[in-house]
Amino acid sequence: MSNSSIADLIFSHARSHNAWSNRPVTDAQLRALYEHLKWGPTSVNCSPARFIFLRTSEAKEKLKPALAPGNVDKTLSAPIVAIVAFDTRFYERLPALFPHNPAVASWFEGVEKQEFAHTTAFRNGTLQGAYLIAAARAQGLDCAPMSGFNNAAVDQLFLTAPR
Question: Options 1.10.357.10, 3.10.129.10, 3.90.1150.10, 3.40.109.10; which CATH number does 3-159 get?
């Protein structure tokens, strides 16, 4: 595929979709998506994004109460739903991710730096979400990024450890 064809696939022909083909998204495709996006540039290589892929009807039904009404049918009918989250303690991995300056973790450590760590994780996790979309589009997969959901509910349903 030529470079212009890939760019067209990723950008020019990549509008948000509201309906899906019946093609499943395979584990191999998900692994390939991650392999393509994982080293995309983020500030100080912080890579704070965490991805949860919902494939089963049960997993998508669990998400349903957190969705805005206009997004329910589209989400439940998708072959896979990706939740893009971020880890605010990403800096614990910086000595491995940014080895030429392992002291950079100290920029984010401590209570007084929590807001900076949160802002950095949000910004760069969002950027990695965009890399996920570009990798999916490069594989010819349709995408529909959404903001129509209750973030706190998604956190509670999928990101909070059971007590």
Answer: 3.40.109.10
